[in-house]
TrEMBL record:
It holds the Pfam family NLPC_P60. The keyword S-adenosyl-L-methionine does not apply. Residues 1-24 form the signal peptide. Residues 21-152 form the NlpC/P60 domain. Keywords: Hydrolase, Protease, Signal, Thiol protease. It comes from the Bacteria. This is NlpC/P60 family protein. One of its GO terms (biological process) is proteolysis. One of its GO terms (molecular function) is cysteine-type peptidase activity. Belongs to the peptidase C40 family. It comes from Paenibacillus albiflavus. InterPro entries: NLP_P60_dom, Papain-like_cys_pep_sf, Peptidase_C40.
């Protein structure tokens, strides 16, 4: 009986801690999804005129009350370093996109989880730049990946989670109840 109670208690703990990650990443995704497709503009830092990579990350985190440095090379010194294997939603991911990867930081994005990150890509000759999602495992990004930084503290991460829970509760209260016809 003790083993059963211990096992059930452990499962409850696992699921309650896991909920914070799901809610936080959902809040983050909701914020960035509204910005997908926004045009790339060198030096840009708002959705009306467009974003560059560090302007995009600064704008997104500003929505949560967090100030980031500019440019991307400076943002790589914000927060604490995180190993690629330990990434969680909200971590900044950094790349060397200037030819051969020598570790210099020239680009930044926000990790969303499941190998996906969002960033303001400058584009190429045949493709207009915009805010978009990509996978870290795509050859180009896998080869140019340099490091990552965690800028959300545990408290901030949990705050973002509770904000989403409050939004969900408010939406549930506003939803009209279905009449049951019997």
């Amino acid at each position: 009986m003790k083993k059963l109670v211990t096992m059930l208690f452990s499962l409850v703990l696992v699921f309650s801690f896991g909920t914070g990650s799901v809610f936080a990443s959902t809040t983050l995704e909701k914020t960035v999804d509204d910005l997908l497709g926004t045009k790339y503009t060198a030096g840009g830092n708002n959705p009306d005129t467009g974003f560059d990579c560090s302007g995009f990350t600064s704008y997104v985190f500003k929505q949560f009350g967090i100030k980031l440095s500019r440019p991307s090379s400076d943002q790589s010194n914000d927060g604490t370093k995180v190993k690629k294997a330990n990434l969680r939603p909200g971590d900044l991911v950094f790349f060397d996109t200037n030819g051969k990867n020598n570790g210099a930081i020239s680009h930044v994005g926000i990790y969303l989880g499941d190998d996906v990150f969002v960033h303001a890509a400058s584009g190429s000759k045949n493709k207009a730049g915009k805010v978009m999602k990509n996978k870290l495992s795509e050859t180009y990004y896998a080869n140019s990946y340099v490091t990552a930084a965690r800028v959300l503290t545990e408290e901030e991460f949990k705050k973002i989670a509770s904000e989403l829970e409050k939004e969900a509760e408010a939406e549930a209260v506003q939803q009209p109840k279905e009449d049951s016809v019997g």
